[in-house]
Design a protein that fits this description.
The protein has about 300 residues and is an alpha/beta fold. Helix content is about 35%, strand content about 25%. A hairpin with a 5-residue loop joins strand 10 and strand 11. The protein is globular. The mean pLDDT is about 90.
Length: about 300
């Protein structure tokens, strides 16, 4: 099968871990092993998140007072290049020597008038306690949200992906059997002005929505979203929480999920799997093959 795999930023840099290059590489090495296992039977295309990483780079950029902070689209490109480099290198170390790999910085067009620009809700960067969150809000003017009791993160605009600018290049690479790492971090958000010129915007596209668009554009058979949670749960965080193991798109769509985390995953899964013959899965990175085979995680199919 042709399988688009979206690696969550929190799977590559786990919650509570130090945000160091060493921790990230160790997690990418584990991801590479799971991806290499899938690649023995399937053609894989790899997308990935960058929420923790892009927030960290933005924090580092803001700390240098002598230079104005770089805009978020440029910082997104930096984080995507950094993560793509490590993923490609670790995959090259575990795949057969003749395997061809490529990492592509991907521009994704969004609508200039997307209402998300007035409603920041995508968490990025490190987790703060209440005191540090208030300090970040005051010092940098960043909107903050309490993800869980006592756990605060910066939030930014997350417009919907409309078009993958380099989709023909990606198709060419995939057709040539190149293991392609693309649409990283949800892609670099760009808008087109009336003259047709592209320019970056201050936003972060949700990587699951972008990867879902990629999977549809590539006519993939399967779309996996791998994260640090073992499945989709109903009534998450309550005594009644329970995992969903299999569902049709319409069965999941009637439930509410957190906008900054599981919500986009479920939305992307339902959109992709709504077409007959396509399957979407959500679950832990180490369960990648088991999810695809219906033995772990949450599997979404229309029939």
């Amino acid at each position: 099968m042709r399988v688009v795999v979206a690696l969550g930023g929190n799977a590559l840099l786990k919650r509570g871990e130090p945000m160091s290059a060493e921790a990230q590489r160790a997690n990418v090495r584990k991801a590479a092993a799971a991806l290499a296992d899938l690649a023995t039977d399937h053609d894989i295309i790899v997308a990935h998140g960058s929420g923790p990483q892009v927030g960290l780079l933005a924090l580092q950029a803001a700390a240098l007072k002598e230079v104005p902070p770089y805009p978020l689209d440029v910082i997104s490109a930096e984080s995507i290049g950094m993560i793509g480099y490590v993923i490609e290198q670790e995959l090259a170390n575990v795949l057969p020597p003749a395997t061809r790999l490529a990492t592509l910085l991907t521009h994704i067009e969004v609508a200039r008038d997307d209402p998300a620009f007035g409603r920041p809700e995508k968490p990025i960067g490190p987790v703060y306690d209440a005191r540090d969150a208030e300090n970040a809000r005051t010092t940098h003017g960043w909107p903050m949200v309490e993800e869980a009791p006592g756990r605060w993160r910066r939030v930014v605009a997350s417009p919907l992906p409309q078009r993958i600018v380099q989709i023909e290049v990606i198709r060419m690479l995939v057709s040539a059997k190149v293991v392609t790492i693309c649409a990283g971090g949800g892609g670099i958000p760009v808008v087109r002005d009336p003259s047709g010129t592209l320019q970056g915007v201050e936003a972060v596209i949700d990587k699951d929505r972008a990867a879902g668009l990629l999977a549809a554009d590539l006519a993939a058979d399967a779309f996996l979203m791998l994260t640090d949670v073992d499945a989709v749960y109903l009534d998450w965080g309550t005594p009644q929480q329970r995992p969903v193991r299999r569902a049709r798109p319409g069965e999941l769509a009637v439930h509410q999920f957190p906008a900054g985390s599981m919500g986009p995953k479920v939305e992307a899964a339902c959109q992709f799997a709504n077409a007959p013959g396509r399957v979407a899965g959500i679950g832990r990175l180490e369960d990648a093959r088991a999810i695809l085979e219906g033995n772990a995680g949450t599997l979404v199919k229309s029939e």
